[in-house]
Amino acid sequence: MKKIIAGFIFMLIAICAHAQKDVTQFLGIPVDGSKYAMIQKLKAKGFKTNPSNKDVLNGRFNGMDVNVFVGTNGDKVCRIMVCDANPVDERSIQIRFNNLCRQFENNSKYRLKPKARCIC
């Protein structure tokens, strides 16, 4: 019984250690750490603080003007939200989605299985 429990604990430790290696990244910046550090790294990438809200950054992402919001749990960054800075219509969204699908299809790092279907 001790061997089974010890094996189970060892397996949990191995899984937890492996999970720590795969940190989500945004523009090559790991999405973890403090909000202040994340905002400083995004500013170094060319984003600017929004004059009306210091927690929002303005800049360009994938060829579009966007607003970037840094979501936290406490002070630890847990998500990044990118929104269009300018309103767009439904057809523009479809075109951009199709372009994103093509970008992912042409990049070996993001091979989709099964392939995502583009909206025509």
How would you describe the overall organization of this protein?
This protein has helices at 2-19, 35-44, 90-105, and strands at residues 25-26, 29-30, 48-50, 53-61, 64-73, 76-84. The chain has 120 residues and is an alpha+beta fold. The chain is flat and about 60 Å long. Strand 3 and strand 4 form a beta hairpin. It has a 4-stranded antiparallel sheet with strand order 3-4-5-6, with helices on one face.
Q: What's this model, at a glance?
A:
This protein has 120 residues and is of the alpha+beta class.
Topology:
Elements (H helix, E strand, L loop, with lengths): L1 H18 L5 E2 L2 E2 L4 H10 L3 E3 L2 E9 L2 E10 L2 E9 L5 H16 L15
Antiparallel strand pairs: 1-2, 3-4, 4-5, 5-6
Q: What's the main sheet like?
A: 4 strands, antiparallel
Radius of gyration, in angstroms, nearest whole number: 20 Å
**Tally of helical runs:** 3
Helix share bin:
25-40%
User: What low-confidence regions span 5 or more consecutive residues with pLDDT below 50?
Assistant: none
Helix vs. strand class:
alpha+beta
What is the number of beta strands?
A: 6
Cα distance spanning the termini: 59 Å
Oligomer: single chain
Which percent band covers the strand fraction?
Answer: 25-35%
| Strand order in the largest sheet | 3-4-5-6
Shape: flat
Order of helices and strands: HEEHEEEEH
Mean pLDDT: 78
